[in-house]
Every structure is written in C-alpha cells, then in structure tokens.
Amino acid sequence: MAKAVRIYEQGGPEVLRYEDIEVCEPGPGEVHLRHVAVGLNYADTYFRNGTYPIPMPNGLGVEASGVVLAVGEGVSNVAPGDRVTYTGFINTLGAYSSERLVPAAPLIKLPESIGFETAAAMTMRGLTAAYLMRRIYSFKTGDTILLHAAAGGVGLIISQWAKLLGLTVIGTVSTDAKAEMARAHGCDYTINYSREDVAARVREITGGEGVAVVFDSVGRDTFMGSLDSLKRRGLMVCVGTASGTIPPFDPQLLAMKGSLYMTRPALADYIADPVEKAELAGEIFDHIAAGRIRIQINQHYALEDAVQAHRDLEARKTTGSSIFVI
After folding, report:
1. How big is the chain by its Cα radius of gyration, in Å?
2. Which of 193, 203, 304, 312 is at a distance of 20 to 30 A from 170, taking alpha carbons?
3. Could you tell me if 120 and 39 are in contact, meaning their C-beta atoms sit under 8 angstroms apart?
4. pLDDT digits (tens, 9 = 90+) for 10-27
C-alpha cells in the first residue's frame, strides 16, 4: 500500500497525517510515479498553515524525484522506467508520498549523473537559483550582492553560482556554525544578524556604497535593513517571507532611499515556458555534474516524520537542503 502525508485542515505541524492511499491508473496526461526522494521546502509550510489557501483535504509537497511506472493517454515526454524529477506549485501538490499520480508536463528527465536524493534536494532550489542568477539582473564581474539565509538550500547554491560569475557575496546567518557553512560555499563575508546591524555592516564592507542586489527570502523582519543595504538604483529581490509578509509601504520610500528597484518574482513564471525551463534545468544540472556547484543535504527524514521535519524547518534548525527518503 502506498503512503502519503495529507492534511484535512490548515494549521500547525500537528495537522499533518501519515496514512495509506490508493493510487489509481493514470488518466490522460498523467503519470504514475514511484518516489525515491521528496524535497522539503519552506513553501510547504505556507500550504500547511493557510498562507497559501488550498482546498481540503489535500496533500503537501511540490518537489520529488523517482521512476515512472506507467503513463496515461497522450503522454509523450516520458515513458515507463524513466528517471525523473519535478517541481511546481498547485499542479504538483502531493509530493509527500511514496507513489502518486502527477501531471506529465512538469516532469524533467533526470541525467544519469544526478542522483535521486540530489534531485529532490535541488530541483526547486536549483531552478530558483538559476532564474535569480540568470534572469533577474545583468550581473557584472565585481558586483556585490547581499544574500539573506545564506546557509539555506537556495542560499548555498546562489553563493556558489555567484562566485562563478565573479561576484562578491555578503551572506546573513543566525549562528556561527551557519556562518562557517556559508563561507565554505562561497560567501566572502558573513553577518550574524542576531548580534550585528546588517545594513551598517554592509555599508562598512562596501566602503559606504551598498550592494547592487539584495536577495531577501526572510521578508518582514529584514525588509527595511535590506533597502538600507542597497546602493543607489540597486535592486531589491523579495523571494520569500519566512518571517512574515512585508507590510504595505508608500513606493515613495524607494525614491527616498536612492531610486531603488524592487521585484517579487515567483519560480512558476520562470518555468512556465518549457523551453526556458529546459534551459534553466540544463544550466544547474551541468554545474552540478561538473562539480562547480555542490548540493548540501544536511537533513534526511522518513516520510512518517513530517511533523518533526516541519517543526525543525520553522524553528530554523535546518541548514542546506532537507529531504524525505522513501
């Protein structure tokens, strides 16, 4: 019998239920997939707690890797036996499972050089890093960026990619251990935000100029400090709200702080075009296969331990990537 983690109401980690499920034959455009590893992402907590409203009951998880068992009518991009990975949003909810039906369209064939666990740990994070580094800003060698949550899964990938582009990386972290990990993955400077003023330290590091780009996945708690860290006409990239959503503000604030730019991108809009998704996936896969970017998997959970996994994630006890191993 296949297993899955499902929710019947939105709330805290305690609403997660580990239970038996039945997987039917795939319908038109669907694939029956056996999972080998499943990604744990902060976005999963938003689906669980109601930040992202979803119909009830429902599954959780939007990223996994595995093997195709069967395909439905009209599926031509994959075949039984193919190794695949996927990520998405509403259309891929239900990844917290040992087997499932999933739409064929989001599936990406997995190169033999990429293992299942690596794929589950980096498909969403890797594609996110890819569009942030290749689509958001025209970086020049010598540019300086500020990267919040530098020891997280996306942060560790961005740091390594930034060094390939010749950038200087300032990363924020909450502990000395996370600072050490961030530096080991490419951060030139680290700022412990639990005891340092981020904006003041950024100005000190940059000789008063500020950074070209801020990647801020924290949200409410870091928003003003991020703006104050930017140089004139710098770019604020809001990529997450781990501490809560950003309060409403007058756009005049951006002018007052140096004619700043601001964007709130979403991965879904950068992988909606199959050609662009293939380009971004190809870039991150090539970097990983060549050893230019390493994927750090620091937490492994069993699917039945999803409650603890969510507690650890929200308590910021995790570093790098986290996965469920089936």
Report:
1. 20
2. 312
3. yes
4. 999 999 999 999 999 999
